[in-house]
Fold each of these.
Amino acid sequence: MQSFHVDESDDRTPHERMVAGDWYIADDPQIQAESLHGLRETARFNELYAHDPGGAQEILRGLLGELGEGAHVRAPLRVDYGTRLHIGAGTFVNFGLVALDVVDIRIGRNCQIATNVQLLTPIHPLEPQPRRDGWEGGAPIIIEDNVWLGGGVIVCPGVTIGADCVIGAGSVITRDVPPRSLAVGNPARVIRTL
């Protein structure tokens, strides 16, 4: 986890700092507007899904950074913004995904995301005062093609999970997982190559 330091000469907006993964404070009007938009659109998606699962996917095509051909997301879904969540073709996302997309979350093609998975990009300072002052940042998550995340998996900020991996149910992924690995536990560790 990066230590807290803010360059006083940095004149970017909080939104620009946020999407770059740098320290920012979320009281910026653009950040608040994007968050509200994501909240409203996921509420529409979650409501419609029970009546028209296919139509609900169209809501996501307008919200997410990408929803690939043949991908399907089941409700309920929770996002911070939605626009930085990218889901590849043929991927299936089961009930209860939480995707805190302060920065990019990229899910590859033909992945299986089980129930109640959490993809968490936000980070907070370890130092007490900056945390108290509301500073936060983010680190992207990359899930490569043909990954299966078991139920209740938590993926921490800045992690890449390589292609063809399987992550056991309930695992907490705190570091990168090489391709073709089976990883389990909290914190997860690779127990064999696939």
Amino acid sequence: MQQTDNAFHSIFDGKTLDGWIGDPKYWRVENGEIVGEITPATIIKVNTFLIYTKEQPADFELKAEYRISAKGNSGINYRSVRIDTLPYALKGYQADIDGKDKYNLGYPRYSGQNYEERGRQFLALRGQRTVIGNGKPQLTDSLGTKAELLKAIKYDDWNELRIVAKGNNLKHYINGVLMSEVTDNDVTNRKMSGLIGVQVHVGPSMKIEYRNFMLKKL
């Protein structure tokens, strides 16, 4: 069957990291999954990414399943650029992912939010719809209570993260539930296309697993 531009296609073959670059000390393929792991012997001082190099999509929908350890901290970056002065570092939008005990709360504090890595930082917390002008993000609506949104997230199992980026509107879903939405009118700082990457974050030992990476151009 011929591939069309508006159909989902896999960006991870389940066997190799073909099309991806990163530090093999932290990233590997195992059981059909991309695994990012920090051990006591490989503690990092700066966040490091596994970066998808074959495309830099503009308007798109991205789906991936993830499972994260209790103390884990990760995320999927998109519309991002590489930082030349650091190995495998990205600047750009991030769909945040954290484990249930990362902040000793018993639930993920930030999963689903929009955080701009090495940029403007918190653009929309989980449960927020925001608009960004030339200053701080302005809250325009609530997407649900903390309790309601947490019900959609599985703390110790696989979740589906979906990112929909169209124009300057950015939506993050977990298991089909909208977790954050940003309308970015900051023409100076916003990015309209760029790299995709997955992160292991500074902090204690952790493990993040990803599978079924699917991308569709809009």
Amino acid sequence: MQMMMVYSSPRTQGNSTTLAKAFAQAGQSTYTINEVYLQNEELQSCRACKWCKTHFRCLLEDGMNALCASFKESEAICFATPVYWWGVSAQLKLFIDRLYQLRMEDFKGKELYVIACGEDTLDGVQYRLIREQFEQICEYTGMEFAGYLPVCAGDDNPVSENENALHQARTLITKA
């Protein structure tokens, strides 16, 4: 079985990536892990041309077609994102928008995990909004919302020094 790890932070050693790597390490006993660093991809924004709806791939040749093939082959997906302006990173939003080229059956039955790191306290509205967004995406696409880990972390309190958060990331996959 395959899991696609989608790291969406512009910082490859950032807090959300650090947590997601702990999660991926725990997931290696169940899944073959395919890591994608969106910061390293040259993705363009969707042009809403709908060419993909008749050709089942995107007209843009920027790497997203290959990423969609990997997405389709995966039984589980993990999105790791920093929190910007009460939501996910621009890199992750762009990736999600470009998944438009997929058919609904390409989503059905996949497990979706989300890891989100921001500087606000855990009772801040941003974590609730992100959770609700992905719950609705799962309901719409037929994916299973398998796990969510919001963590308060920043430059002054890096997640690499938060053993409780790292433990939560390592055990997130076992709670599904």
